[in-house]
Specification:
389 residues, alpha/beta, nine-stranded mixed β-sheet, six-stranded mixed β-sheet, 15 strands, binds adenosine-5'-triphosphate, binds magnesium ion
Length: 389
């Protein structure tokens, strides 16, 4: 019996050229993700994408696991392919659904008939297939309101499909439909969630990490790579730039007022991130900031970090509570890695009383003791580039 994966794409609000772009990108993302599992035939008809394995012994379970993480997919299921005849549907339905139906007590049948020339109407399909399944599996009862499983028969233009229920997809837009942006990634809980959230809106991710050896360790860097590899399961490959930040932090420590350390550090991070991003064709910066979470995330502090760059700064977590952020980090499996106790450069030179309400112009004055341009150029030229997938 021929089995396929049936995919319903998301964002039905998209129309015209956007929709075409969405579908083409989604299909190439699916191809890329499934490539290592063997050859498949992918077709796209009426907002439904079908994936048909060509090879024997195709690892269906693994393919479903991968499909689950691809943005742009609203729902998916495995389905049995039938000829568009009543006979073929009747002969395959009881056999294909055997394991599923034996494991449940109640069911209902839904029918979708895209081809109006099919001899049975949708209600007739439901009644006939429902009756047939009851005859084959007498332990079953029909429950139209709250069934254990919903059997769906879809009659489309070339084939009919039978499936049992469907699984929620990752949602969002296909990665690559929204351009490229750079996530400033620390080893904390927030920034990987911010990265995932924006990849979900179709962005290809670059990542920038500031490291301050020997204050920060190789293990802290490895932690960032592990976090990114978890995000990359959804976003696809991520270019990572690791910026040496020790000298800059030491210079800030020597030449700036202590209550401005964190703010100035963050302003320099933004300046460097913007330049690296421009070189890489990335159009925005992304951070894991959430309003009021720490001293550098008050509105006056954010205004000071924003004012040194001209690129848009996306802060997808700005209105979220820590609990919501943690819930997502658990869902995307970054939480356990994030809470490993390795030091981040932000925690190395923390002032006792960081400024929460910097006055406009004060950061500029505090920065006067730094050879800003020289420090930035040196950090960028010693940046190490690698990629994570
Ligand atoms: P996170 O949990 O992401 O570390 P946080 O709540 O600890 O965030 P901060 O340490 O103030 O907040 O950092 C705010 C944001 O600045 C981070 O979400 C991240 O985008 C960026 N950031 C902080 N440290 C680094 C770093 N070492 N390298 C790159 N970006 C960083
Ligand atoms: Mg942090």
């Amino acid at each position: 019996m021929k089995e396929i994966i049936l995919i319903k794409d998301g964002e039905l609000a998209l129309k015209g050229l956007n929709r075409k772009n969405f579908e083409n990108t989604l299909i190439s993302n699916i191809k890329r993700r499934l490539k290592s599992l063997g050859e498949v035939k992918i077709e796209n008809l009426q907002s439904t994408i079908t994936i048909e394995p060509i090879e024997e012994n195709y690892d269906f379970e693994e393919a479903l696991e991968r499909v689950k993480l691809i943005f742009g997919i609203a729902a998916f299921s495995r389905a049995c392919v039938c000829e568009k005849t009543v006979e073929d549907i009747y002969s395959k339905a009881p056999i294909y659904l055997k394991d599923t139906l034996e494991a449940v007590k109640t069911f209902k049948v839904e029918a979708k008939r895209a081809d109006k020339s099919f001899p049975l109407t949708s209600p007739e399909i439901c009644r006939e297939v429902g009756g047939l399944l009851l005859k084959n599996y007498p332990h079953l009862k029909v429950d139209v309101h709250n069934p254990d499983v919903t059997v769906v028969v879809e009659v489309r233009d070339r084939y009919a499909f039978i499936r049992a229920g469907q699984i929620h997809g990752a949602g969002g837009l296909p990665v690559g439909t929204a351009g490229r942006a750079s996530i400033l990634i620390s080893g904390g809980i927030d920034s990987p969630v911010a990265a995932w959230t924006m990849a979900k809106r179709g962005l290809v991710l670059n990542a920038i990490h500031f490291a301050s050896p020997p204050y920060t360790s190789v293990r802290a860097e490895q932690k960032v790579k592990t976090l990114l590899s978890k995000v990359a399961r959804y976003s696809g490959v991520i270019n990572l730039s690791i910026v040496p930040f020790t000298e800059i932090q030491e210079e800030i420590g020597k030449n700036c007022p202590e209550d401005y350390f964190t703010l100035i550090m963050r302003r320099i991070m933004m300046r460097i991130a913007e330049r690296i991003s421009r070189n890489q064709g990335s159009l925005a910066l992304i951070t894991g900031e959430s309003l009021g979470q720490v001293a550098s995330q008050t509105l006056p502090a954010i205004a000071e970090t924003d004012s040194v760059v001209t690129m848009p700064v996306l802060r997808p977590l700005i209105g979220m509570d820590k609990e919501e952020i943690i819930r997502i980090s658990k869902e995307i499996d970054t939480f356990e890695t994030s809470i490993l106790p390795y030091e981040d450069c932000c925690t190395v030179f923390t002032p006792k009383h960081p400024k929460t309400k910097p006055k406009p112009g004060q950061c500029e004055i505090a920065e006067q003791g730094l050879l800003m341009e020289e420090l930035i150029e040196r950090a960028i030229s010693n940046t190490v580039h690698t990629y994570i997938d």
